[in-house]
Specification:
The complex is a heterodimer of chains A (165) and B (172). Chain A is mainly α and 165 residues long. Chain A is 73% helix and 0% strand. Chain A has 8 helices and no strands. In chain A, helix 2 (13-21) crosses helix 5 and helix 3 (25-51) runs antiparallel to helix 8 (135-156). Chain A is elongated and about 55 Å long. With 172 residues, chain B is mostly helical. Chain B has one domain (24-154). Chain B is built from 7 helices and no strands. In chain B, helix 2 crosses helix 4 (67-87), helix 3 (26-51) packs antiparallel against helix 4 and helix 3 packs antiparallel against helix 7. Chain B is elongated, with a radius of gyration of 19 Å. Classes of the chains: A mainly alpha (165), B mainly alpha (172). Chain A binds chain B through residues 20, 23-24, 26-27, 30-31, 34-35, 37-43, 45-46, 49, 54-59, 61-63, 65-66, 69, 129, 149, 152-153, 155-157, 159-161, 165, and chain B through 23, 26-27, 30-31, 34-35, 37-39, 41-46, 49-50, 54-59, 61-63, 65-66, 69, 145-146, 149-150, 152-154, 156-157, 164, 167, 170-171.
Chain lengths: 165, 172
């Protein structure tokens, strides 16, 4: 199934273009992938570190308005990441580091979803300058930082533990 | 000059970083360089975005608290970068793109210091609207960091081949 999908994907013109048919696409996507990484880590970092007690003078409600920029960073990386996969699916589908990278992204996603559906989002939204967030929010913040750093770890290990370039 | 670079590259440390099969060598150092990038550039970008008008009801002043983390990330990258440079001294130090990257990093770090002195130390910060020069500093910061990332990435594509054995520049 995955094998068949990868074979089809690899046969597309998009795959050919990304894999070097159009030589500047791959380095451009890599560059954008790092910019997206920085945008995501920076905004999520401010948010998580504030919830963990840094820069407590930041009110959480107005700070949450910065979140669309983290979503933009994530979206850039989702698109460029999909293009890498399209360019050479076979260096990823049997790659253990790639599996763990996707797992950590999924866990980070679950963490975000729980933050919203449990109502933690609304409780945090009302936390003003100088106040602590509820304890569960601190757990979510710590989990978020660990998971996103983990995503970077597995991404970096793609060529070393796995065999991607 | 080339001899100095070669002896650096062939030193015990350089050889270990480049050729050790341990994940603690090249892979972990490269990972540290990525984490440092994420926090250094990311926190700078978050501050820049606020200076450009994002999340306008959030006060700017408390963001100065993130400077120690940005400096920590900077030093992580200075050290990990030095290790990666020693491991591939003959190729990276003869690659013009490396010097373009260093120029952008220098400009970005100077810009970051200027923002702390000129924007965060202003007594009227968060009491009056942000000035035009504040916006310019935010835009130059984003530009310099984007330039540093781009040049860093393109070192793998232009100039002499370096990095893990077997790698090739994919743009001739």
């Amino acid at each position: 199934m995955l094998q068949a999908f990868s074979t089809w994907l690899h046969s597309t013109r998009l795959s050919w273009a990304v894999a070097g048919g159009i030589p500047w696409i791959w380095p451009l996507c890599e560059t954008l992938h790092f910019m997206g990484l920085a945008l995501l880590m920076g905004v999520v970092g401010v948010f998580d570190l504030r919830m963990l007690g840094m820069a407590k003078e930041l009110p959480l409600g107005p700070l949450q308005r910065l979140m669309p920029w983290a979503v933009l960073g994530f979206t850039i990386n989702l698109v460029t990441g999909f293009l890498f996969f399209t360019g050479d699916p076979f260096q990823y589908i049997h790659n253990i580091a790639f599996f763990f990278k996707l797992l950590f992204i999924a866990l980070a996603g679950v963490n975000v979803i729980l933050f919203y559906v449990t109502g933690l989002y609304r409780r945090v939204d009302g936390v003003g300058a100088g106040h602590d967030v509820p304890f569960p929010a601190k757990i979510a913040a710590a989990a978020s930082l660990i998971l996103w750093i983990g995503v970077m770890y597995w991404g970096r290990m793609l060529p070393f533990i796995g065999n991607a370039f | 000059m080339m001899q100095v670079l070669a002896s650096l590259e062939n030193s015990a440390f350089g050889t270990w970083v480049r050729e050790s099969s341990s994940l603690l060598a090249y892979p972990t150092i490269l990972f540290m360089h990525t984490v440092g990038l994420g926090f250094l550039v990311g926190l700078n970008a978050a501050i820049d975005l606020r200076m450009l008008g994002a999340a306008p009801r959030m006060p700017l002043a408390p963001l100065e608290k993130f400077y120690p983390i940005m400096w920590t990330a900077f030093w992580i990258n200075a050290l990990s970068g030095t290790a990666l440079l020693i491991a591939d001294a003959t190729t990276k130090m003869t690659n013009p793109v490396f010097y373009i990257k260093m120029t952008f990093v220098t400009l970005a770090v100077v810009n970051m210091v200027i923002i702390r002195r000129r924007v965060f130390r202003r007594p009227s910060l968060d009491l009056t609207p942000l000035s035009g020069s504040t916006r310019v500093l935010a835009m130059t910061s984003l530009f310099f960091w984007a330039g540093a990332i781009t040049a860093g990435r393109l070192m793998a594509y232009f100039g002499p081949v370096s990095g893990a054995p077997g790698l090739q520049n994919r743009i001739p």
